Amino acid sequence: MALYMKAAEILEKVEQKKGAVKTLVYDSKFQNIKQLFALVCETQKYSSILQEIINSTKLLKETKLRIHLAKVLVYDLLIGRGVKCGGAWKTTMLKHRSRLESALARIKIKKKVSRNQDLLPSGSQQTQGNIIPRYVRVNSLKTTLDDVIDYLKREGFSYQGTTMRLEDLDHLSGKTFLCDLHLKDLLVFSSKTDFHNHFLYKAGHIILQDKASCLPAFLLNPPVGSHVIDACAAPGNKTSHLAAIMKNKGKLFAFDLDAKRLSTMSTLLLRAGVTCHQLANQDFLKVDPLSSEYKEVKYILLDPSCSGSGMVCLRDEVSEPQKDGRLQALAAFQLHCLKHALQFPQVQRVVYSTCSVHTQENEEVVSACLQHNPGFRLVHLLPNWHERGHDPLTQCLRASTAKTRTHGFFVAMLERRPLQTDGQNLPMITTLPVGGEEKQDTPQSSPSDEERETSQTANELPANPSSKKRRNRKKHKKQEP
Ligand SMILES: C[S@@+](CC[C@H](N)C(=O)[O-])C[C@H]1O[C@@H](n2cnc3c(N)ncnc32)[C@H](O)[C@@H]1O
């Protein structure tokens, strides 16, 4: 019984995007982790089919079961190993068994398939999910990249140097690992590698974070000692990344509406050795930009609630009209947050990110915001990143399993235009190409605002401070036996 209750609890959190399956399962302290993990994953995979069965048999009304528990029990009864617990739930499920079986059979007939697995959407998500590698961010507040690499080598892992091509990631297997091409503190392992029980993870030396989710803090790149806001911060992976970049110096104001998520975040930040933060259980939209507390805030990371449609394991379970309404509401909220972020008087750069693949939550939000804020423009991010924002917002980045071996993601960086001496905003900005020296300011001819906002040659990401070190590492690698 405990297994089903725990699985239902985790499934609910996953569907509410409150965490990743693996993390929630491991944090649950459940005795049989493997069994729990398998049950949650499988139920989640069949979630929309289970929902259909439950709806058509009116199971919730008949049994008073809650939806997530019903899904788990129906999964095990019809597709899994049969309901194994004793007691009331088993009796209930057996009572409704034939109706449930008939509902499943009807769906199979309708879809013209004979096997349960053929009911799953044909392949793409599942296959893609299998090829997202395991990304591990080294927490520089607690350790160094070299120390982690050495530690892992002593444990029998084999370090293969820096990734050169996307395809390198598909050949990772067993205990081999690589250093990521774009993010110097990111290591890449085969998707099957599990660090949840590893000392380095438990001690906060490594953070298990998808590469795409590491982009926002990396791109914002707040200087050591700066004042930064993480507007929608929990559970705090990006907050701890920002703190690491700031070397725990300066001020990191982190807000979140959800008290429970904030409390988890507090524990995670403690484990990660973050000390420069100030957590507030507050609606970011109600934070006063003119408060003296935030007068030095120049950098804001905004990663608001979104549809989560980029998360490979999350499925869209709502119908199209519902989805439309939900997307509209989310986009309106996201736009509101982004506009609010630009109200902070000293803010220079705002990174906006979502784990959504919908243009409505991404490019459309950014375009609408820029239309209302001509004093800001887009920064052309990572020129060597191939998956760009949808035309014309090609300065922004997109990520996907197929093109970047990550979850689906979107990142934009808005930058305040420099002021002319007469107080007007200048259409020119500093160009800092990746891995290069700072170039002189490049005045642009004066195209229309819209053209400037979408110009690809405008400005680029601050140089990756690690590039020199990386070259050394590669050299070093070549000397290794
Ligand atoms: C996508 S999650 C943030 C993930 C987080 N940035 C990380 O990397 O760990 C969005 C968060 O926004 C919070 N949120 C939603 N509306 C908010 C608001 N008005 N003000 C502050 N936080 C909000 C949610 O509670 C949720 O924790």
Automatic annotation (TrEMBL):
One of its GO terms (cellular component) is nucleolus. GO terms for biological process: rRNA base methylation. S-adenosyl-L-methionine binds at C232, A233, A234, P235, G236, N237, K238, D256, D283, D303. The active site is at C355 (nucleophile). Keywords: Methyltransferase, RNA-binding, S-adenosyl-L-methionine, Transferase. One of its GO terms (molecular function) is RNA binding. Residues 421-481 are annotated as: Disordered. Residues 124-417 form the SAM-dependent MTase RsmB/NOP-type domain. Residues 467-481 have a biased composition (Basic residues). Pfam families: Methyltr_RsmB-F, NSUN5_fdxn-like, NSUN5_N. Belongs to the class I-like SAM-binding methyltransferase superfamily. RsmB/NOP family. PANTHER family: 28S RRNA (CYTOSINE-C(5))-METHYLTRANSFERASE, NOP2 YEAST -RELATED NOL1/NOP2/FMU SUN DOMAIN-CONTAINING. This is SAM-dependent MTase RsmB/NOP-type domain-containing protein. It comes from Phoxinus phoxinus.
